[in-house]
Specification:
This protein is mostly helical. The chain has 6 helices and no strands. Helices cover 73% and strands 0% of the residues. The chain is elongated and about 50 Å long. The protein starts with 13 loop residues before the first helix and ends with a helix.
């Protein structure tokens, strides 16, 4: 019976062997390129991305920790200022102090709500409270607002207590600007610096106009110094 010629075991001609060899070489090169590219991508891109991701997470975590530290410190700081302003609303002797007290209550209560909202979101995101980097003695919280209830003359005692309090808030806000990451908190910190510096300038102008001098650059009570003018400005024990 006729059929296809029997070719098993027959040697290939030289052109055929050359063609097969070329095909096999091309397949090997193609497979090597695919495998090598995938491996290189995993080693270079994947490894690079992973290292960058770790670095980014570390930076973001540190910044977010500072953000939470800023909120944790500024909330009670603002609450203290509001307490002082509420006493001033009852006891102020001048229109300047009454107006300043009203502004402090209005603006800082709103800022407290903003700080609480952002801090709660950061906590839900798993961010731990970091270190703000502002020591307690620089936060302007050495005075007790309750002392204002018996202070005489009240307006001078109020500005003498509020000026270093504002200076502490500015120091804390500057730390947030320098090391924080949350855009909304950084914007709030910038607003605090601007507003409270303007109020410090206004309080010093008022003190100089009404009592003959601005508050000394370094708060005497904080540094353990005293002078006659400052001792009169603080509450009578």
């Amino acid at each position: 019976m006729t059929g296809w010629p029997h070719t098993e075991g027959m040697p290939l001609s030289r052109p055929c062997r050359s063609l097969v060899t070329c095909v096999l070489l091309l397949c090997a090169v193609a497979l090597s390129a695919c495998g090598g590219g995938a491996g290189a991508g995993a080693g270079a891109d994947g490894g690079g991305d992973h290292r960058q991701g770790n670095h980014g997470s570390a930076v973001a975590g540190a910044g977010a920790g500072v953000d939470r530290a800023f909120a944790a410190a500024m909330i009670p700081h603002h609450e203290s200022a509001v307490e002082m302003a509420r006493i001033a609303r009852e006891r102020a002797q001048s229109g300047f102090v009454r107006g300043l007290a009203a502004d402090i209550i209005r603006t800082q209560q709103a800022e407290i709500e903003t700080l609480r909202r952002i801090d709660a979101q950061l906590e839900r995101d798993g961010v731990a409270i970091g270190d703000l980097g502002v020591p307690d003695h620089m936060q302007g919280m050495d005075d007790d607002p309750a002392d204002l209830r018996d202070a005489e003359p009240f307006d001078r005692a109020f500005v003498d207590m509020m000026i270093p309090h504002h200076q502490g808030a500015i120091a804390m806000a500057q730390a947030e600007l320098a090391r924080g990451e949350n855009p909304e908190l950084k914007a709030l910190a910038q607003a605090i610096i601007g507003a409270q510096q303007r109020e410090i300038d206004a309080m010093n102008d008022f003190r100089e106009r009404e009592y003959g001098s601005a508050l000394p650059q370094e708060h005497p009570r904080t540094h353990g110094d005293s002078d006659g003018d400052h001792s009169q400005a603080h509450p009578v024990e």
